[in-house]
Write a structure and sequence with these properties.
This protein is mostly helical. The chain has one domain (1-25). It contains one helix and no strands. InterPro entries: KdpF.
Length: 25
């Protein structure tokens, strides 16, 4: 369960980073 939460948080951070830095993707 804890691992699932960590994965979700990492995905959320990655998506936010991609939204604020679209030129890098």
């Amino acid at each position: 369960m804890l691992a699932l939460i960590v994965i979700i948080v990492l995905l959320f951070v990655y998506l936010c980073y991609a939204l604020f830095n679209p030129e890098k993707f």
